Amino acid sequence: MAATLVGRYPHPGVMNPTLVFRDALALRLVVDLRLPRILAAVLLGAGLGVAGIVLQMLFGNPLVEPGLIGVSQGSAFGAAIALVVFAPPLWVVQWVSALAGGIGLLVSYRIARRFRFGGWILRLVLAGIAVSALFSAGVGIVKFVADPLSQLPTITFWLLGSLAATSWTRLAQVAPVVLLALAYAWSRRWRLNLLALEDRVSFSLGATPGRERLALLVAATAATASLVSISGIVGWVGLLVPHAARRLVGANTAHALPVSALLGAIFVLASDTVSRTIVVGEIPLGIVTSLLGAGGFIVLLLRNQVRVVR
Amino acid sequence: MSLELRGVVAGYAASRDSEGRHEVLHGVDFHARPGTVTAILGPNGVGKTTLLNVALGWITPWSGTVSVDGRDLRTLSGVERGQLLSLVPQTDHVAFEYSILEYVLLGRAPYLGPLQSPTAKDREIARGALEQAGIAGMACRGVLETSAGERQLVLLARALAQEPRTLLLDEPSAHLDLANKRRLVGLLQAQKELGRAIVLTAHEPEFAAALATTVVLLSEGTVLASGPPQHVLTEALLSRLYGIPVSVHRSGDRALFAW
C-alpha cells in the first residue's frame, strides 16, 4: 500500500495520499502505472520464491535456483531469439521462453547425470553454470546481430530485469498461469518434503516420485518463465529467499513455502521500489535484487547459516 | 499372508557401462509371515538389497510374483503400499535441516492425502515411534546433527510411524554400537510380538542368530538354504556361503561365529 505513494511525482519521496483525489494525473499514475507494477512485483517475488524452494526440494539440493541451473538464461535466450527472428505478441515470447527455460533445465540435468565429479549437489550446479554460460553466449550472439535501434534495447531490458514496462494488460496475461502454479505448489506444500528424499525412500512412503516431481517441476518452470517474460531475468530471489525462509521457520515446507512466497514478495517489492525511486533514470530491478540478494547470501554463508551436505 | 515372493527373477536393465541386462536374482522364494523375523544373509553383492527392493515394489521382477497380504504388489496403490510395507534404508540423504520429529512425521505420508499436512494425531504417533526407537529425547534436535548410528534409529522411527504390516530393513545393525545393537534386537522382537512381519538383511550371523525366526542364505542370486537359525547357521553352510572356513561356537544359548 505504502509503495503506491512512494515515487518521484510530484517530487521525489512520498506522495501525499490526498493528492490522488485532487490531481487527475496523480490518480492515473497510481492506478495505471504504480498499481500494476506493484502487483507485478509482488507476483514476481512470490513466484520466484516459491519456484526457488520447489526446485530446491525437487532436486534435494539447497543450491538450486532458476538462475543457477539454466532456466533463467534459457528463458532469456528463447525470448531474445523470439524477439529478433519474428516480432511476436507477448504470449508467443512467453511460451518460447518457457520452452527454452525447460530445455535449459533438462540439459543441465542430463549433463549432471552423466559426468562424474563430486556429489550430486555440486554436479548439478556445475552443469547449470556451464549451460547458463552457453545460453548467455547465445544471447550475446543474438544481441550482436540484433538491430541496435529497435531490438537491442528490448533484449537488454530482458537481461537486466525490470518491471518498468508493466501494464494491466501484460499483468493479466501472466497472472493466471503464475497464480495457478503457485496454488498448485501451495496445495502440496507438505508433500514437497517427501519429494526431497531419495526416490526409493519417497516411494516406500507411498509416493510416486517421478510423476509428482514432474507435475511440480512443470508448475515451477511455467511460473518462472511467465514471470521472466514480463520482468526479464531477476536473479538471486529464488536462491536467497528460500534460505531465509528456512532460517526463519525451519526446513518443513508446510511452513517454509508460504513464508518463502511472502518474503519473496516483500523482497522484490522493496527492491523494485528502490529501483524506481532512488535515481531519476531508474536502476534495472535485476541489478538491485542481485546486489541485495548476492550480498545477503554472502552474509548467510559467512555466518554459517547455509547448510550444504555432501 | 504378509509378504511372499515366488520364483522371483530380477535385475537391472542394460546400462551404458555393461552389455545386456544384468540378472541378479535367479528365482528366489521366501515367505515372511506375521510375527516372524526373516534374516537374509549373504556375501556382498549377492543381491540382498535387490531382494529388498523387489519386496518393496521398487523393482518389478522380470518373472515371478510378489504378494502382500495375498494381493499382488503391482495392483496396490501407493497409499496402500505405504500402509503395508515400510523400508529402513541403510542411509538416507537429507539435504535440509529438519528436526527429528518433522522427519519422522514423513512416515505418516501414506495416511495423508496429497493436499494434507500431519494432524495432532499423526504427531502423537510419531512421538510414540520415537519413544519405541528409544530416541524420544532427540525429537527437537536437527536431523543433520545426528551420528550414523542415531540416524539409523531415526530412520527406524520413521518406518515405525508408518505402522506397517511388514517392516523391511536394509542392514539395520551396520552403524550401531553394541548397546544400540542389543536395543535394536529388543525393539524388533517387540515389533514381532505385535504381529508384524520383519525382513532384514544382515552381514553378521550373530545378529541374525539373536533375532531371526527364519534365516535365508542368499548365494549367487539363489537361496542356498532357509530355515530356523540353528539349522541354517551351521559351519558347513556358512563356509559354503562365504567361501572361507567358518567355525561356530556355542556360549550358553548364544552362537558365536569365527573366521
Outline:
The complex is a heterodimer of chains A (310) and B (259). Chain A is 74% helix and 1% strand. Chain A is mainly alpha-helical and 310 residues long.
Structure characterization notes:
The complex is a heterodimer of chains A (310) and B (259). Chain A is globular. Chain A starts with a helix and ends in an 8-residue tail after the last helix. Chain A has helices at 2-5, 19-22, 24-58, 71-85, 90-114, 120-145, 151-160, 168-187, 191-195, 199-204, 209-231, 237-249, 253-277, 285-302, and strands at residues 6-7, 13-14. In chain A, helix 4 (71-85) packs across helix 11 (209-231). Chain A has one domain (49-302): ABC transporter involved in vitamin B12 uptake, BtuC (Orthogonal Bundle), CATH 1.10.3470. With 310 residues, chain A is mainly alpha-helical. The radius of gyration of chain B is 19 Å and the shape is globular. In chain B, the strands form three sheets. Chain B has a six-stranded mixed beta sheet with strand order 6-7-8-3-9-10, with helices on both faces. A four-stranded antiparallel beta sheet of chain B has the order 2-1-4-5, covered by helices on one side. In chain B, helix 4 (120-132) crosses helix 5 (148-161). Chain B is built from nine helices and twelve strands. The mean pLDDT of chain B is 89. Chain B has 259 residues and is of the alpha/beta class. Chains A and B meet through helix 9 and helix 10 of A and helix 2 and strand 6 of B.
